[in-house]
Design brief:
The chain has about 325 residues and is of the alpha+beta class. It has a single domain, classed as (Glycosyl)asparaginase (Glutamine Phosphoribosylpyrophosphate, subunit 1, domain 1), CATH 3.60.20.30. Helix content is about 35%, strand content about 25%. It has nine helices and 13 strands. A nine-stranded mixed sheet has the order 4-3-2-6-5-1-11-12-13. Helix 1 runs antiparallel to helix 2 and helix 2 packs antiparallel against helix 3. The N and C termini lie far apart (about 50 Å).
Length: about 325
């Protein structure tokens, strides 16, 4: 097998996806490619929901969640509410090598990273601190809802040997409660990978995604013979419809999937940009939107949309 592919959530992952594609072309492993993709996103200080520059919790502390899964062995590693670590995804990947103690949280996760030589740094940038201070002032002056933004970067890679890997990384909800953990580090909800079948990762409101174990469900449907797109549509839209009936509302939910053949799929209940590259597909950003019949509309992004996006993320903080 010599096919390869990579898919990732949100337009902010594009540069990382290009890096991952370069590695996969050079016969690097799916694990190396997906880790490097997420590290690229974690390093960029203007992305407000991932890594360095991520927006903090209500106490002004950046707490991050991340996960890694090896589709060959089903080995998984996760960290949650980890602090002051430059690359949470790398800690998660290291933990995936452990037979036990593969999911660490809070102080224990941070201590593990320090003891094992991972790069430590203050993850709260001055830009993020200013945004947090402004939000605190606004909340004192009005009854604003505190939660704003929950864009997990998730990615799946398929290498030339047929191995799949999946990973996630996020700083979670802005102004979240201290210690709050979303779906991103939770196997089956935020991610799942099986090289015999396929993989999926999620992004959106973790509290709602966790009500459905959506990543595992998509992989299960692919195992039954559905294409990644069919599996995504058949999982996300019925779940969102059912949750709205039973719970009264449903937050933003988007999932991506990739199977062992390199075929991909996406489903979402909001406007959702994602990135894709493969052996026969140049890296590009596409836009997904929910269709009218429990289906997904996918089209290329416009230059105007991309220009506006770049303007937004680089806009000065007042």
């Amino acid at each position: 097998m010599n096919n390869w592919a990579v898919i990732s959530t949100w337009s902010m992952s594009y540069d990382g996806l290009v890096k991952a594609a370069e590695l996969l072309k050079k016969d690097k492993s799916a694990g190396d490619a997906v880790e490097n993709l997420l590290r690229k996103v974690e390093s960029y200080p203007l992305y407000k929901s991932v890594g360095y520059g991520g927006l903090p919790n209500e106490d002004g502390v950046v707490q991050m969640d991340a996960a890694f899964m090896d589709g060959d062995t089903l080995a998984q590693g996760s960290v949650a509410a980890i602090e002051n670590v430059k690359h949470a995804v790398s800690v998660a990947r290291r933990l995936s090598l452990n037979k036990i103690n593969s999911f660490l949280v809070g102080e224990g996760a941070t201590k593990y990273a320090m003891q094992n030589g991972f790069e430590m740094t203050n993850m709260l940038t001055e830009r993020a601190k200013t945004i947090w201070q402004n939000k605190v002032k606004q909340q004192l002056q009005s009854d604003l809802h505190p939660y704003d933004g929950h864009d997990t970067v998730g990615a799946i890679t398929l290498d030339r040997n047929g191995s799949l890997a999946a990973a996630t990384s996020t700083s979670g909800l802005f102004m979240k409660k201290n210690g709050r953990i979303g779906d991103s580090p939770l196997s089956g909800s935020g991610f799942y990978a099986d090289s015999h079948i396929g993989a999926a990762t999620a992004t959106g409101l973790g509290e709602d995604i966790m009500k459905g174990c959506l990543s595992y469900e998509i992989v299960r449907k692919m195992a039954e013979g559905k294409s990644p797109q069919e599996a995504c549509d058949a999982t996300v839209y019925p779940f969102c419809n059912d949750l709205k009936k039973r719970y009264g509302k449903v937050g933003e939910i988007s999932l991506i999937a990739l199977n062992k053949k390199g075929e991909w799929g996406v489903a979402t209940n909001v406007e959702f940009p994602f990135c894709i590259a493969a052996k026969k597909q140049e890296p590009q950003i596409l836009m997904a939107n929910p269709g009218l019949h429990n289906n997904t509309k996918i089209e290329p992004i416009s230059q105007a949309w991309l220009d506006n996006y770049q303007k937004q993320i680089k806009a000065p903080v007042k």
